[in-house]
Amino acid sequence: QVQLVESGGGLVQTGGSLRLSCAASGRTFSSYAMGWFRQAPGKDREFVAACSRNGLSTRYADSVTGRFTISRDNAKNTVYLQMNSLKPEDTAVYYCAAVLTSTNEIYRNEKTYAYWGQGTQVTVSS
User: Fold this and answer.
1) Cβ distance 27 to 17 under 8 Å?
2) Are 119 and 6 spatial neighbours (Cβ–Cβ below 8 Å)?
3) With contact defined as beta carbons under 8 Å apart, do 34 and 96 qualify?
4) What is the distance between the alpha carbons of residues 23 and 55, in angstroms, rounded to a whole number?
5) Calpha distance 76→29 (Å, rounded)
């Protein structure tokens, strides 16, 4: 089992940047594929980005491609989401998620993920 704690959210102006972090407990972090999701007020939670266990494979939602970068440091049990060129429509609660896997597959479907953090608020002002 793994516990996830996000940090790094906040208020930023349009065009600004934020880096979210998700710290995981446990000693088997490298066995988990990781993902970031977000949920805006009144909307369903949506996929943002995901990476494989080894971090070498990544995938992004079309809406963030070219602006967001997911990365991980398995030595620090942490996954990151670097967010650049932020837009008001990026405003949401951002969640990290983990799924135990034996491969370097990437997962977009939130139903695949077994473990979730509590979320961190990102607000982009216009």
Assistant:
1) no
2) yes
3) yes
4) 15
5) 9
- Tens of pLDDT, residue by residue over 76-126, are 999 999 999 999 999 999 999 999 999 999 999 999 999 999 999 999 999
CA distances from 95 to 7, 49, 118, 119 (A): 10, 11, 7, 4
Q: In terms of residues, how long is the chain?
A: 126
Model pLDDT, residue 1: 85
What are the C-alpha distances in Å from 69 to residues 10, 55, 84, 89, 114? 18, 11, 9, 17, 22
Q: What is the dihedral of CA 80, 82, 87, 93, to 10 degrees?
A: 10
Contact 24, 78 (CB under 8 A): yes
Nearest to 51, CA basis, from 110, 1, 104? 104
Q: Which of 22-26, 31-35, 82-86 has the lowest mean pLDDT?
A: 22-26
CB burial of residue 98 (10 Å; 0-12, 13-18, 19+): buried
The type of residue at 2 is: V
